[in-house]
Amino acid sequence: MPNIIETSGLTKVFGSNGMSVHALRGIDLAVSRGEFVALVGPSGSGKSTLMAILGCLDSPTEGRYRLDGEPVEGLTGPALARIRNEKVGFVFQSYNLLPKENVLRNVELPLLYAGLPRKERRARAFEMLEKVGIPEKATVLPAQLSGGQRQRVAIARALANHPALLLADEPTGALDSKTGAEVLELFCELNRQGNTVVLVTHDPKIAALASRRVELQDGLVVREEERAA
Amino acid sequence: MKTTGAFRERLRSAWTEIRENLGRSVLQALGVMLGVASVLGGFSISDSQRRHSDDAWMKRGGFDKLNVQPAGAIRDGTTPTALQNANLGLRRTDARDGERVDEKAVQAFSVEKFARARVRSPFADRDRDIRGIAADYLAMNGYEIEEGRAFSTEDLEKASPVALLGAEAVSVFFPNGDAVGQVIRVGDIPVTVVGILREKVFRWRESEQNVFAWRNRIIALPATLVAQRMQGDVHQRVDRVVFKIPNLGLMDVFSTGLRSVLKANHRQQEDFRLDDIAARVKKRRSQGQVYNMIFMLSGILSLVGGGMVNVNIQLASLKERVREVGVKMAIGASGREVFKEFMTEALLLTSLGGLVGFVLGVLFSKVITKVLEVPLWMNPASFVWAFALALVFGFVFAIYPAWKASRLSPMEALRYE
User: In this prediction, does ipTM exceed 0.85?
Assistant: First the structure.
């Protein structure tokens, strides 16, 4: 089975010459289809940078990266936008929903960028809202939802284009422990359905839910642990 | 043609953005509103003025005319040569020969002969200008018969003692209004009034005097009658010949042809003057064009000023929207898509501003034409012009902020606080 993520020697350097900061110093990482990986590490360890590169928001300074079999390290602008649209679903700590658009339209947005016709967009967006358990909130503005519900909308939006990879950056960071647990349960459920999930967190309890734990420090992978099934 | 409705979605979210930031949007569209209003208003006012002056020309029978009048061929201080002395001046034959220069170009011509005489009726006794007329004089000068009849061909040929009176002449010589069929004396010739001419009225402003008042003073006799009975002229000299040339493109060729024919008739003496009315009007019009340019320029300046304000506001508001752009990019919007979204918003705003500008422009023109007391006339083309200018400037000034937004790095945009 081909790996969803395959990187070798990924480095990322910010700034130039004297002022440069090496955020990543050579990451070799492979994530196969259907895995649930937790990226952990203290702040400044480079996990957000790695996440940005894995999500094609940023390009590595050096190294190779294949996403779903496609080499993406050399791609720029529009090509990267297409990859983000088709292959990656993002879930952020702060939800990042568009406040002026209702829930349904928020979920539709990636489908719009993918060029789907209107009817299909509608149907798919509804389907996703059902999947995350809040179909009744379709016409509501994000501001009228609770934090947990907002994160569910964000997850529905991330799933809309059936991405190969679901990337979550501290998805429960802004939630209380009870709703946080519910959202995490949703991730587990999505993973059981076959979605590949990479989750960034600094909470060991959350990391313990994942099938594999990858620990970063100073821009390097310092430890990898499989969880006994 | 894509059927994804992406454009519709962009338009819809642009509208949401405009509606949610109404104050800012109005501020942004202000320049467009004023620009459109000023271009539209300016054009409409000058169009209305021109329409009004066209109306004046139509009322005096159009400006597609070439006048021929006698002129002194003799320079001051020189003794006229025998040839010059022997010249007879402008004659009836000149009119006929002129028509033959290009019968297709000449739609009509008129002949006039001036005289002054004592005119007497049972009610009045005045010294008045008399106009001997022939051919199409009435039609070419926009006169219409109010009562009675015009001169017949026979009247004109046989020098019948008949007369037509203008409205003012009727009121002077027949204050009771009953003029047709009555006899007046022009000099010592008794002539019968066969028709009354409709009063001609034109005012540059509603409250001003009638500039056509003198045209109502006309006392017209057949030119032949004036020549034979009043002046005893056997050469049929005339004081003015006018040719109507509806196709102005033929005017130059015709006037050159006419000049050589007349010179041949006049023993190579240039004792006449050609006056191309159309050219004169055109020249005056071209001065009117200057005003149009000024109005257009002031509109453009306000569009440019508004455009720059727009760029500033848009750049400032972009700061608030960096994160939104980042999110859109993260879920797959390309820079191109972001650019399109910003452009759609700017052009929608420009269009809405333009529509408000139309309303302002119409109101503005109404007020000004009311003050000028000129009937309002708005050319549909002015609306198109004003809107097109607004769109062009709206487009140009929207490019920079939109480009800036499209160039944001998704990573930095997402982290922007």
Answer: yes
Largest interatomic CA distance in chain B: 107
- For residue A122, the chain B residue with the least C-alpha distance is B4
Angle at B70 between CA B169 and CA B150, to 5 degrees: 35
A195-226 residue pLDDT tens: 888 888 888 778 888 888 888 888 888 888 88
8 Å CB contact of A100 and B5: no
Answer for the pair A155, A132: CB distance below 8 angstroms, yes or no.
yes
Q: Which residues of A touch B (CB under 8 A)?
A: 52, 55, 57-58, 77-78, 81-82, 84-86, 90, 92, 96-98, 100-101, 109-110, 112-118, 157-158, 161
pLDDT in tens, A43-65: 888 888 888 888 888 888 888 88
Could you tell me the residue range of the domain that residue A172 belongs to? 34-60+74-226
Residues of chain B with pLDDT under 50: 1
- The set of residues, in sequence order, having a beta carbon less than 8 Å from that of B398 and lying 6+ positions away, is B310, B314, B342, B343, B346, B347, B350
Q: Is residue A151 part of a domain?
A: yes
The C-alpha of A66 sits at a distance from chain B's nearest C-alpha, in angstroms, of 18
Q: What is the CATH number of the domain that holds A80?
A: 3.40.50.300
Question: Do the strands B189-197 and B272-276 form a parallel or antiparallel pair, or are they unpaired?
Answer: unpaired
- What CA–CA distance (Å, rounded) separates B53 from B202? 10
Q: Answer yes or no: do B337 and A90 touch at CB < 8 A.
A: no
Kindly report the pTM of this predicted structure: 0.74
Nearest partner of B31 among B299, B358, B303, judged by Cα: B303
Q: Is residue A13 situated within a structural domain?
A: no
Within a domain: A99: yes
- Say how many domains are in chain A: 1
- Per-residue model confidence (pLDDT) at position B1: 43
Residue A68 lies in a domain: no
d(CA B168, CA B165): 8
Residue whose entry in the numeric block shows the structure tokens 């949007």: B25
